[in-house]
């Protein structure tokens, strides 16, 4: 079964503001929350569907990609995929709790907080860099090896953040739970402990090597698979190649912003290419066959007699590959008739005779005229 449109799932228009998107998700999340719909598979599915839609539409960059490519953008989730898309989704329960707190766990005793309420290890930070490519590399796809500086687990404390030989202590604010409760009328709202930031532990004697961060900067060599057809503004996501995380959490991701260099031969318009075709007057007047350069080599093009300057010829399938699949764009060549700057005496005489056959009177004079020698 195909996925429903995310805007349809949330019941909002494509022009909906961020606040309208959040409000629509909140309404659906409360309606279909599993704690209110015990053993209801349909409600659980609707809850997950709403969470997935909100996670994409609440992120400006992911929303822009979705508006451009639809669900096809979900395929751009890592090295070797095409174009920098969504990747995996957050657990719907975690997404709900992060936005609204663990309200249903407090109201109905659902108790969905993992590990006694303590937050699990956070994901490492994501990194972002720019990658410049030639038009030829963008057309065929390429694997680039790049050097980046990223944070790795500290060799001295092994990520514990403590000075070797010491240990973290239990947070006195939350008692190691990682959360604190606040009563607001009928509801009891739980939030992340402000002292330990949800970890339940505190570092009293930090590691000197990493200054208690648990991480240190190191150089890494990363391979990025660029799919054919990318353009300036496309973003690739290389999953798990960002900063390391403290406490065994997953690495962040690496986002690669593509920038295509200008090409001397072609001008790009989305998936189509445009190029000039320089021809002499006799070639366009009499017709000819000429070779046209494309990204994949030269091809023969027949120029019919009487072709005018500015006339455009389309070479189907000789443009850029389409990122979403479905073949390639086209190559459009525009005829530009070149006028010689210098003529020999014989060439001038022949042109005078040709002009006479057209009934044209020439301003040429034997001395000092248009065709006179300089």
Please give a structural write-up.
The chain has 374 residues and is of the alpha+beta class. It is 23% helix and 26% strand. The chain contains nine helices and 15 strands. It has helices at residues 6-10, 18-32, 41-57, 60-69, 92-100, 103-108, 135-140, 281-286, 345-357; strands spanning 127-133, 142-153, 169-170, 179-184, 187-192, 201-202, 215-226, 235-238, 254-260, 267-269, 272-280, 288-294, 297-303, 312-315, 331-338. Strands 10-11-15-14 form a four-stranded mixed sheet. Strands 1-9-8 form a three-stranded mixed sheet. It has a two-stranded antiparallel sheet with strand order 2-7. It is elongated. The model is unreliable at 75-87, 102-117 and 366-374 (pLDDT under 50).
Main features:
374 residues, alpha+beta, four-stranded mixed β-sheet, three-stranded mixed β-sheet, elongated, disordered C terminus
